[in-house]
Design goal:
single chain, about 500 residues, alpha+beta, 2 domains, five-stranded mixed beta sheet, three-stranded antiparallel beta sheet, about 10% strand, globular, iron ion binding
Amino acid sequence: MASFDLYLYCGLTAILAYLIYKCATLVTGYMDWLKLGKSFAHLPFHWFLGTLHLIKSVEDIFIIHKPLVKAGHKAIFYWLGPQRPVLITVNPETVKVILKSTAPKSKGAGGYNLLLPWLGDGLLISDGKKWERNRKLLTAAFHFEILQPYVGVYNSVTEVLLKKLEKANGEFIEVFEPVSLATLDTMLQCAFSYQGNIQQLGKHHPYVVCVQRMCQLLIQRSVSLLNLFTPYYKLTKNGQEFFNMCDYVHQFSTEIINKRKVELQNKSEAEVKKRRHLDFLDILLTAKDENGESLTDIEIRDEVDTFLFEGHDTTASAISWCFYALARYPQIQEKVFDDVSSVLDVSTDLQWKDLSEFTFLPLFIKEALRYYSPVPAISRQVKDPMVIDNVKIPKDTIIDINMVLIHHNPNIWPDPEEFKPERFTTDAIDSRDPYAFVPFSAGPRNCIGQNFAMNEMKTVISRVVHRFRVEYDETRIPEPIPEIITRAKDGLYLRFIPRNPAK
């Protein structure tokens, strides 16, 4: 009995010591955040909720801070509850400090950890030695010799999309759905050599349904303090739906991986290369680091899930908003058409060499990426103290690189609400800080697939504008909504009118 009392006493003492330590840590951290709040511009704080009482949706974060950006502040402080202080960087001078660093992704409450059950610890989320190793192993998948054969896939996928647009007979249609199916089709064929008739199956394909729904659920969860507590969230209806969908996407990717494993076991690498192009999945399954170690099954699945999502959904957003910009600015559309016609005047199929021949199309795409940032924001967490705007930032501070606010900062971009592709001429780019335009992030953790995405965008947009004149529905002006990617609140409705062949 005495022995039991001793164990009980020691246990209670340990628990009490831990609670005292945690309370001291919270108080110390709270004081640090208060000091930080005195150094940067911010909206009025609630003593416990911080800025959370002003934020009902993620969109509010962008809206309520616009006046502070316009006033010229380079960084803005806001506070999502008692344990999530965030510094928003909205100026190239502050953006480059964090993007040039090796600061890891923010995985605290409401951070990238919400994506972990879905995407796992792949390139998007992983940090440190693991990220360095996997990034090095996967860089080979985006060498130009690997990317070059993909142009054929871009063309064949776009041909299916063109036929679907033609069948609309000039009626207004919601474009994000068919474009998302096309980019998923492209990713599956290019990266995984997977033929699944994705575009023919349409919106009812369960993977497409899951991705769209999980994005919605994640956004809803990120602005609810109670739902950030995972054990509780798993008990909710939305939580159960989200984790069931995670199981499905994992099953989908695992089937693709296992099928390729069997193929590689039965054929030599030379036979595989001869039969088709070497793709991302081949490299994942055969890559070995300097110690001769391969990626584990879980690591392979995490990278597949990451690239399936990032490789199609962000590109779909970019292409869809490019189509809207073509429709919204008809004079610019004609300039794009003229540029495309000078390259595609003989064959409607785009060749690898054609990608570098366009002159105005790349300016247009970059301006669309600025105006309608496909990825609204990314986040980092300071692992060591650093200085931003002459202020020492404490360890563990979360820093948001807000692309929307950076790309629409009037102190960087004259007339930021006007659509001007000329902002991206060589002279204009040379006169501007390169960190003023970061649609693919920048620095050591920039998007590994940005060349793949740009090539795909050039192909799809050039072939569509070469075949059709794009018009928008004046009764349904789309409202950009910054979710995980930028979508249109009530859909994006356009019509595609076949061009006069004699033109």
